[in-house]
Amino acid sequence: MRYLIGADIGTSGTKTVLFDENMREIASESAEYPMYQPQNGWAEQDAKDWYDAVIKTIKGVIGKSGVKGEDIKGIGLSGQMHGLVMLDEDNKVLRRSIIWCDQRTEKECREITEKTGEKRLIEITANPALTGFTASKIMWVKNNEPEIFEKCRHILLPKDYIRFMLTGEYATEVSDASGMQLLDVPNRCWSDEVLEKLGIDKDMLGKVYESVEITGYVKKDIAELTGLKEGTPVVGGAGDNAAAAVGTGIVREGAAFTTIGTSGVVYAHTDKPVIDKKGRVHTFCCAVPNCWHVMGVTQAAGLSLRWARDTFCEDIVKRAEESGKDAYIEMNELAEKSDIGSNKLIYLPYLMGERTPHLDPDCRGVFFGLSASHTKGDIIRAVMEGVSLSLCDCREILEEMGINADDMTLCGGGAKSELWTRITADCYGCDVARLENEQGPALGAAILAGVGTGIFESVEAACGEFVKKREKIKFSEDAHRKYERVHEIYKRLYGSLKEDFKALGGM
User: Fold this and answer.
1) Of 49, 184, 240, 360, which is the active-site residue?
2) d(CA 419, CA 486)
């Protein structure tokens, strides 16, 4: 029997899964790590935490399963996108990684736009300058930490730092590289024009591969640490959303998925690069060779519910710890008791600024309509509804661009909640499928490893064979009409508060 590993280096933690060649899960291990917020709107992580987590979890799945290292034929990597890892000439990490949800780079975004031209930037990178993307983070370090920038010799993304540590290769792949804002997205290669205008040396960047290509082989020291065989192939893999698309079977025109993880994403596959000239959604290369995807992003999706748990639900968390029950189960039960519209309470999920449809690092979370009559259940349900309405904004833009997103699958932690799935289907006004066995990015990364090592013929063929969906959650026409009324108020709130968000950010 042949085996494959998919490792997903996420924001909350790393999840590594060992699959057999029929994509049956054999063993799974996870390891969490912290996020640092030294200032309001900043977000950083320590690259060593990612590395320690990957080594621990790979060793864990091999030890737990008893599978021999020589029977593991390939490794696929997935990970949080946009994070900046800077190495010096000795390959030492120069500073904590500034990660995807960091909002400090508004000034640098203006600088990038001025230097490249807004229209030209979107033509090349398929996106406007965004605070979440890597290019603005590089420029921030260049402007604010010049001594660190001078020492920098290599720039890597989070999962690609792990690739370097496993193989010694400086490499990336098209899906993750698309989110750096340095890639020519239509042509799937680094943009010499953008790099020159920003003063970034192309030699700092890794070689760009397709997601299914082999990028390197496991080094001897890593083999000794983990139980892998030296020389095990490591394929390109994909950014978390592109890998999740493979793990969800979204690999053909017309298919779409919504993920409610730390962030929220509405993602649609396309056979050609469709670009929103207004820059409200992102067009990236996807993990299927010579295909692309369009996606809208809600910065704080599951993060909003986690924040609500940690802020408002200490009693629930304590009971959960005592009983061994997941705190989110009781939170769902309380939210079920609240009606559609959360007793006239609306939540804007802008805890970390926003990307779609508002490119605004200054906007912040809001409870609108809060009164003394509201219960904890109302607050929890309002958080769920606010996230789903934000995702509805994303989906509406895709439809405006002519992208059909009715063949919808829901994944991520939010999909575990029957209530949140139903809320999302009712907000969208379309039926929503869930997966029989969701491993998301880890499964997608392992499938890519199987294609790259010749076990599977193609990404599409493997997904057709191994990705299975459950019966769809049907949306309610009556509930959809009610949510349309809530959504109208929801959409007006940002416009009413936009200038106040900016004033607050300038205090």
Assistant:
1) 240
2) 18
